[in-house]
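Case study.
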Amino acid sequence: MFTEVKKHIKLIFKYFTFNLSAIAEYRTSFFVQVFGMALNNASFAFFWWVLFDKLGGGIGGYGFRDVMFLWAVASTGFGLAHVFFANMNNISGMIMTGELDTYLLQPKNPLINSIAARMSATSWGDFLYGIILMLLIKASGMMWIMFAISIFTAAILITSIAVAGHSLTFYFGNMEAVGRTLWEFTITFSIYPETIFRGPVKALIMTALPIGFITHIPLRMVYNFSWGTLFLLLGVAITYALFAFALYMFGLKRYESGNLIITRM
Amino acid sequence: MSKYLAMAGISIKNSLVYRANVTGRIIFYFVFIFVFFSLWSMVYSGNEIAGYSLRQMIWYVCMTELVVFCSGSGIFGIMNHEVKSGEIAYQLVRPWNYVYKQFASMLGNITFSALVFTLMAIILGMVFAGPLKGFNAAAIPFIVVSFLLSIAMNFFFLMSLGLLAFYFEENGPFYFIYQKLLFVFGMLLPIEFLPLWAQGILRYLPFSLITWGPAKMVVDFSYGYAMEIIPLQIIWCIGAIALAQFVFSRGVRKVNVHGG
Amino acid sequence: MAAIILDNLSKTYKVKVKGEGFSNTLRSLVKPEYKSVEAVKKVSFAVDEGEMLAFIGPNGAGKSTTIKMLTGILHPTSGEAEVLGLNPVKERKILSYKIGAVFGQKSQLSFHLPPLDSFRLLSSVYEIEKDLYEKRLKRLTDLLELGEFLDSPVRKLSLGQRVRCEFAASLLHAPKILFLDEPTIGLDVVVKHKIRDLIKRLNKEEGVTVFLTSHDAGDVENLCRRAIVIDHGCVAVDMSVKKMKYDYLNKKVVSLKFSEQASLQDMKGVNILKSTPYAVKFSVDTRTVPIGKVLAGLDSDNLADITIEEPPMEEIIAAIYTNGREVG
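After joint prediction, the assembly is written out as follows.
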């Protein structure tokens, strides 16, 4: 079992270099897209700066740097996820068009194989932006530590949520819209101060859809570190990843029983 | 004129086929407003900020989002595609003005979703903010005119940017910059949040006029304001149309000379 | 030794039945109705190691479904399949190391990169040891004449070049069985021949079993010794291609050229296809009248030229499709 995991990790890195060359083929387009993303992120930073400036104090207990921390983790985490697994949002498409079959014929786990097959050029911009942002806000040592840890848990959670959403296509037919919406939710909810969410929404993002663990919990730990919370964070990320994986694999079994099909053929 | 109406009609029929896409955008719209509602509710403690009350802020965001959703930003991609595939060269043979034709198509395409979104915007405003105090029904015609001008302005600017594909292999940056300018100068925050000197300039530039223009009319109407904004919108609208026509005719000529 | 065995292999799909119109749509949401579609019905046959089999049939006959069950992509409803001694469903991963596939529209190559890069990636996927991979790559490059464009991005290659690369990609890991689904579609005659030669060579030199699906009669005729026709989920015909050609339609087509103007008398079983003052083309139903008798009735002094042919493969296949199970 362990050798299999090792083999798949090797495969992911092989895809990494492979995809990197593919993107390099389109150098201009790459820089343009990165530019676009940087601009997008910068406009939000501008928005927050104006808002904090106008309001004078904190917002929900958050200062400007805190909001920027959320952005940095979300951006770099997102970038990381999409550099390695950009195909996560194509899962529904691959199922519906039968492109998945090509991966089924190969001797590797179809999920890993299919989502690693593409790299998003744009995401390098996101990846770098978070780091640059951290530098610009002169992040504290503790912020850096939490940043370093949470970009990985963020990447895992972002990927897992997208995979879980799209896996529903195995069960209910084309759920591309759902998968994509979940993915958008994830980004949108993780870049605003935790305190603006209350009640059922708060409960949701801390449990069934652990978006709160992507940026908010790490920020809490910047000011209030505890080993318990850290283990909770790691635990949630790994558990959710396993959950998404299982959801996909069980869905795959259904797919192979041919219940989706006739349209595909 | 009638042929453009006919085109709009066909587009309406076609657009009904793409209902799924509309659902996705509705959800996104809802989520967006919800997040902003949560944010503003927490920020405001009963008073006014930059001359806007909490209710006004929420309605404001609903309205700016509405403008953007209705503008059909797809035109940029469509122009890009038509230029790069060379299909656009064939358009010269057709007995219509390309720029107007695209506008008519877009209107047809979005009529259905525009109605849905307008309804949604009003519902969301009511649900999250409650009725606007002092809303004057007499403002409605001005609001509608302003909205339409905004949609037209946005459309023709985007079309011009898309047509830049004639000259630039990668015209993406222009699109990004334009969209972000819209974003930053009125979509999320009314320009009153910015320093006075910035406000002074922005009032005359198209970016704020597209979003903040009509939105402010909804939340804080005054005739004086309408008299200021609407003429400016008209001027920029004419400018945008002229720009699109210009880029198109120059670009197409270039294609024909060089063989595309 | 059998490479592929199918034993009463069946696949039945449940398809949602929905009527037209809004009220029916509502009804199907609340109480969905299903209809059973038997795509593959108790198909049984075996393919030997090193055999080249043509698996043909009209669209919707169940070809793709069968291949999917053999490659482990689809679970059969009942019956069994055994490929290289393995159960395709339960032991799919192990099997995937030993089989290769070229499926019409599906590509294993990255569009933006040179084929060489994709090959290298595949060597990781299939865990091919470096030396072995290099050797194999060289052999396939020579065999398929890929040398010139191995380094060009796939998007810059012609269809013929791309198909050759797809073949190479599917053969890197030296599979024992090659599943081919419409491999020559859209290719020009020269490239088709190249591909067919490649397949023949592989079969001869390496003993690769070939399972071919094609609508191209030339593929069937040139490559395969045996053909199985599947129609409506059942095996309609299972015979050697030779027998199909010579015996199936019991028909021969004769073309005659005369030195002096002449015409053919009416004869039972003879159907005149084309007739001009100096030439005539006719078909002979050899069940009604032996070909010898027809020829004997000709004026040999007047014959400038004669050609006797079997009906083209297309016609034979078309006839099989339309007649279904009505076979000798």
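Observations recorded in class. Residues 36 and 255 of chain A are 38 Å apart (CA to CA). The interface with chain B takes residues 28-29, 32-33, 35-36, 39-40, 42-43, 46-47, 50-51, 54-55, 59-60, 177, 180-181, 184-185, 188-189, 192-193, 195-198, 201 of chain A (CB under 8 Å). We will return to this complex in the next lecture.
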